[in-house]
Design brief:
Its EC number is 6.1.1.20. The protein folds into 6 domains: 2-39 and 157-183, 2-Layer Sandwich (Phenylalanyl-tRNA Synthetase, Chain B, domain 1), CATH 3.30.56.10; 44-153, OB fold (Dihydrolipoamide Acetyltransferase, E2P) (Beta Barrel); 206-396, Phenylalanyl-tRNA Synthetase, Chain B, domain 3 (3-Layer(bba) Sandwich), CATH 3.50.40; 403-472, Phenylalanyl-tRNA Synthetase, Chain B, domain 1, CATH 3.30.56.10; 501-690, BirA Bifunctional Protein, domain 2; 707-799, 2-Layer Sandwich (Alpha-Beta Plaits), CATH 3.30.70.380. The protein is of the alpha+beta class and 800 residues long. A hairpin with a 2-residue loop joins strand 35 and strand 36. The chain has a 7-stranded mixed sheet with strand order 27-30-31-37-36-35-34, with helices on both faces. It is built from 20 helices and 41 strands.
Length: 800
C-alpha cells in the first residue's frame, strides 16, 4: 500500500508534524513501512531557456542556453520540441537525482557536445507516469528555486506492508486514521470532495439473486459524462503511488479505491442490455475481460450480468464489451460489497490478482457502501462538470450495525501487564474510531464496520498494546496459565505440572537426539499422490489447496519424512536418521511419532553399519519400554502398499495396532533418489501415552549376578519371531518356577543357508535369568532351560 504525505494531509492536519517520526511510529504500531521516497530534490531548480540552437551533430536534438539565476548560462542538450525561448522549465543540475529516475545527473557529452544537466518533464520528477515534452512552468516562479518546492509539489511517498487482517489500512483514509492517533489530531469524518446528494429517481433495474455473495450493491446512473484526460492534480496524485492515468472516469475509480478503500467499476450504459443481475455464473459461460483474455466461468463464480450474459466478474475484473471508451457519454457506476471467500476463490482460480480483488478478499467496509457511492458521484461531478446523476439504486440485504464487544480492565492487566486506568484504555481505542461506554471497570466497545478483524475482547487488547506502544511493554510475571494445570484445592492458585506423557515425550526426544537422530517439522499437508501408511486412506483433495503438493491434510508423518529425505539426498547426504512428533488428521485427530533411517549408522565396534529392519524394530521397543510391557509383533493382515511386501510388521497392544515398522517400497524410495533401502516406523503416540499414570519410577538393579544362556532355534522361515515372544509370555504366566527367575530375552542373530535346511532359518536368542533375592543355583537354571526347550519343541521348533 502506497500513500503520499499530501494525500494523508487531506484527511488529517499534518502542519508542523515531523513526518519521519510519524513513519517510525507507524512501524512500531504494526503498519510496517517498507520504503520511503522523497518527491523532492534541491538540485532540480527553476530555469529559464534564453536561447535554443540546433545541435550540430544531431537533427533530433537542440542545445538550450539556460539561466538558473546564478549569473551564468548553462549549455544543456534536449530532445523535446514543446519549449521556446523564455519558457521556465525544471533543470536538473549535476548531482541531482530526479524522483522519477534511477540514476544521478552529471555533466557529460551528448552527441559530442557537453551537456551541463537535464531539462525535465513531469515524468522524470515522478509527477506523471508518462509525459510528452518538457514541463513548462508558471512564468512568475523565481529562478534557482527548487522546482518542486516552487510549485508546492514536494511530497513524501510511503510504502506500507500490511498483514491480511488489516484491510482498513488499504486506503489513505485508513492510514490517516492511524496517523491521527499518533499525532493526536482528529481525521475528517468524510472525504473533502464528499457531498451528500439525494437522487429522486432510481437507476436501471437491478436484481440480486445471490445475497450471500453480494449483500450490498449501489448502482448510480450518470449521464452527460465527457471522457477525457483527468485533471493534473488527479494524474499527479495517482502518479505519486505509481498508478498510470487512463482517463478521467477510470482515474476516478482508481482514486476512490486508494482514497477510501472502495473498489468501483464503471460500465458504458449504452453497451449494457436491459437490467443488471448479480448471480452465479452458468455452465459454459465465458467473459472477455478488460485484459482482452477469454475467461471460462464456473458455477461458483459470482458475476454481474445483463440480458445477454456476464459483463463483469464480481470483485475481480470488468468485461471488455461494456468498457468505458472515448465515445462514452452515460455510465453505470457500481459500488458494492462482495463476499471475500467468493472473490478469493475466483481470483485464484483464474489467476487474476487485481487491486480490487486484493481488497475484497480481505474485507472492505461493508457499512459505507452508499457513502462511498455518493463520494464517487461528487468527485465525478467536479472533474466532469457536464455530468449529472440521473438515478441511484441501492439493495441492502442486511443492515450493517457496529459490533458490540465487551472488554474488562482485568483482561488488559493480565495479558499485557499494564496498570492502565479504564479512561486511558477508552481514549486509546477512541483515537482509532473504536468508541466505547464505560461501565465501572468494563468497556462496551462499538466496533465499526471498517474493522472486520476485531471480533473478540483479546482483539481489543491487541489494539491497546499497539496504541500504547509495544516498545513500552515491560517484562512482568505473567498471570496467564500456561501448559497443563493441576489445582490442589478449590480457590487456590494454579500450578504448572507437566503430565507424564509430556515428560515421556521429552525423554523420548532426548533419547533419539542422543542416538544421532535429527528432529524435523513437516507441513500438515502433503500431495495426494504420496504413499498410504499406518491407518491412512485415500483422502479427499482440498478444494482450495495452496499448491498441488499441499493438497491433502496429512494422515501420516511418513510422507513429510520422505520429502525431507529427498531434499537431503539432493544435497549429497549418504546417511540419515530422522524423527518427528506431529499430529495426523484421521478420526480421531491424534499425535504420532514418525521415524526414518537411511544409509548406515555409526557402531562403536564395527564403524559404519547399514541400517536394517531389526535396528528400527529394536528402537521402537526401546523407546516404548516402560510405557507398554505387553505389546506383540505380527505380520500385517493387510499388506501396506507403500512398504516392501516382505519387510513390514505391526506392533499391537491388546489387539490394537499401535505402530508400524517396515522398509519403504523400492519403487517409492527411488522417487526420492534413495540408493539403498529406507526404513520407517510410525507409532500412535497419543494412544501409547494415553493410559500413563505416573512417570516411570527407578527400580534398583539386583545385587545378585545374572546368568545368560544362548540358544539357536530352527523353525520355518515364515514363522515370525513374535511366536517365541508369545511362548515366553505363556511360560512366565504358566510356570511359576520359570517366571521367578526369568528377566529378559533378546534376539542377536538370524541365519538362513547351509547347513540349515531350505525353507527354514535359525534364530539365536539370549535368555537372562536373575533373582533380586539370592544367587541362582544350577538346579534352578537347568530347570528354567528345560522348561524353555520343552516349550519350543511343543511348538515344532528344534534346537540347532
Amino acid at each position: 500500500m502506497k500513500v503520499a504525505r499530501t494525500w494523508l494531509n487531506d484527511w488529517v492536519d499534518l502542519k508542523g508534524v515531523d513526518f519521519k517520526s510519524v513513519i517510525e511510529q507507524l512501524s512500531l504500531r504494526g503498519l510496517e513501512v517498507a520504503s520511503l521516497k522523497e518527491l523532492a530534490d534541491d538540485h532540480v531548480v527553476v530555469g529559464r531557456i534564453d536561447e535554443i540552437v540546433d545541435h550540430p551533430n544531431s537533427d533530433k536534438l537542440v542545445i538550450c542556453k539556460v539561466d538558473v539565476g546564478d549569473g551564468r548560462l548553462r549549455q544543456i542538450g534536449c530532445g523535446a520540441k514543446n519549449m521556446k525561448a523564455g519558457d521556465l522549465v525544471p533543470v536538473a543540475l549535476p548531482g541531482a537525482k530526479p524522483p522519477g529516475l534511477d540514476f544521478e545527473i552529471s555533466s557529460r557529452p551528448l552527441a559530442g557536445i557537453e551537456s551541463e544537466g537535464m531539462l525535465c518533464a513531469e515524468e522524470e520528477l515522478g509527477l506523471e507516469t508518462s509525459s510528452e515534452g518538457l514541463w513548462i512552468l508558471n512564468p512568475d516562479l523565481p529562478l534557482g528555486m527548487p522546482a518542486l518546492k516552487a510549485t508546492e509539489l514536494e511530497d513524501t511517498v510511503v510504502e506500507i506492508e500490511l498483514t491480511p487482517n488489516r484491510p482498513d489500512a488499504l486506503s489513505a483514509r485508513g492510514v490517516a486514521r492511524e496517523v491521527g492517533a499518533i499525532v493526536g489530531r482528529p481525521i475528517r469524518e468524510s472525504a473533502p470532495y464528499f457531498e451528500a446528494a439525494e437522487v429522486g429517481a432510481t437507476a436501471r433495474r437491478l436484481v440480486i439473486e445471490d445475497a450471500e455473495g453480494c449483500p450490498n450493491y449501489v448502482l448510480s446512473e450518470i449521464s452527460g459524462v465527457k471522457v477525457e484526460e483527468a485533471p493534473a492534480w488527479l494524474r499527479r496524485r495517482l502518479a505519486s503511488i505509481g498508478t498510470r492515468s487512463i482517463n478521467n472516469v477510470v482515474d476516478l475509480t482508481n482514486y476512490i479505491l486508494m482514497d477510501l478503500g472502495q473498489p468501483l467499476h464503471a460500465f458504458d450504459a449504452a453497451k449494457v442490455s436491459g437490467s443488471l443481475c448479480v448471480r452465479r455464473a452458468k455452465v459454459g459461460e465465458t467473459l472477455e475481460g478488460i485484459d482482452h483474455k477469454i475467461h471460462k466461468l464456473i458455477e461458483d463464480d459470482l458475476v454481474i450480468a445483463d440480458e445477454n450474459g456476464p459483463v463483469a466478474i464480481a470483485g475481480v475484473m470488468g468485461g471488455a464489451a461494456t468498457e468505458v471508451s472515448e465515445t462514452t457519454t452515460d455510465i453505470l457506476l457500481e459500488c458494492a460489497y462482495f463476499d471475500p471467500t467468493t472473490v478469493r476463490k475466483t481470483a485464484r482460480r483464474l489467476g487474476l490478482h487485481t487491486e480490487s480483488s486484493h481488497r475484497f478478499e480481505r474485507g472492505i467496509d461493508r457499512g459505507q457502501t452508499l457513502e462511498h457511492a455518493m463520494a464517487a458521484e461528487a468527485l465525478l461531478r467536479q472533474i466532469s462538470p457536464s455530468c449529472a446523476v440521473k438515478g441511484r439504486t441501492q439493495i441492502c440485504a442486511k443492515e450493517v450495525k457496529p459490533l458490540a464487544v465487551e472488554l474488562t480492565l482485568d483482561l488488559v492487566h493480565r495479558t499485557l501487564g499494564l496498570e492502565l486506568e479504564i479512561s486511558e484504555v477508552s481514549s486509546l481505542l477512541a483515537s482509532i474510531g473504536l468508541h466505547s461506554k464505560v461501565d465501572g471497570l468494563r468497556l462496551e466497545v462499538s466496533v465499526p464496520s471498517f474493522r472486520p478483524d476485531i471480533e473478540r475482547p483479546i482483539d481489543l487488547v491487541e489494539e491497546v498494546a499497539r496504541l500504547h506502544g509495544f516498545d513500552k511493554l515491560l517484562p512482568t510475571r505473567s498471570e496467564v496459565q500456561m501448559g497443563y494445570v493441576h489445582r490442589l484445592k478449590p480457590g487456590k492458585s494454579a500450578t504448572i505440572v507437566p503430565k507424564a506423557k509430556l515428560a515421556r515425550e521429552r525423554t523420548t526426544r532426548s533419547v533419539l537426539l542422543a542416538k544421532g537422530f535429527a528432529e524435523t517439522l513437516g507441513y500438515s499437508f502433503h500431495g495426494a499422490e504420496q504413499g498410504v501408511f499406518l491407518g491412512a486412506s485415500k483422502s479427499d483433495v482440498l478444494a482450495n489447496a495452496l499448491a498441488p503438493e499441499l493438497s491433502v491434510m496429512r494422515q501420516s508423518l511418513i510422507p513429510s519424512l520422505l520429502k525431507t529425505l529427498g531434499v537431503n539426498i539432493a544435497q549429497r547426504a549418504e546417511s540419515l536418521a530422522l524423527f518427528e512428533f506431529g499430529r495426523v488428521y484421521l478420526e480421531p485427530e491424534r499425535q504420532r511419532l514418525g521415524i526414518l533411517v537411511y544409509g548406515a549408522r555409526q557402531s562403536h565396534f564395527s564403524g559404519q553399519v547399514p541400517w536394517d529392519f531389526f535396528d528400527l524394530k529394536g528402537l521402537v521397543q526401546e523407546i516404548t519400554h516402560g510405557l507398554v510391557d505387553h505389546g506383540e509383533w505380527r505380520v500385517p493382515t493387510q499388506v501396506h502398499e507403500s512398504l516392501h511386501p516382505g519387510v513390514q510388521a505391526e506392533w499391537l497392544v491388546d489387539d490394537k495396532v499401535m505402530g508400524l515398522v517396515g522398509q519403504v517400497h523400492p519403487t517409492l524410495a527411488s522417487q526420492y533418489d534413495a540408493k539403498g533401502p529406507v526404513f520407517v516406523a510410525e507409532l500412535e503416540w497419543s494412544w501409547i501415552a494415553e493410559g500413563l499414570g505416573d512417570v516411570p519410577q527407578h527400580r534398583p538393579i539386583s545385587k545378585f549376578p545374572a546368568v545368560s544362556r544362548d540358544f539357536a532355534i530352527i523353525g520355518l522361515t515364515e514363522r515370525p519371531f513374535s511366536e517365541i515372544e508369545e511362548l515366553i509370555g505363556e511360560l512366565r504366566q504358566g510356570d511359576p518356577a520359570f517366571g521367578a527367575v526369568f528377566q529378559e530375552m533378546s534376539l542377536f542373530d538370524v541365519y538362513s543357508g547351509a547347513p540349515i535346511p531350505e525353507g527354514k532359518r535359525s534364530l539365536a536368542v539370549t535368555l537372562t535369568y536373575r533373582s533380586s533375592e539370592r544367587t541362582l543355583t544350577d538346579v534352578e537354571i537347568q530347570a528354567a532351560d528345560q522348561a524353555f526347550l520343552g516349550a519350543i519343541h511343543s511348538r515344532g521348533y528344534e534346537l540347532r
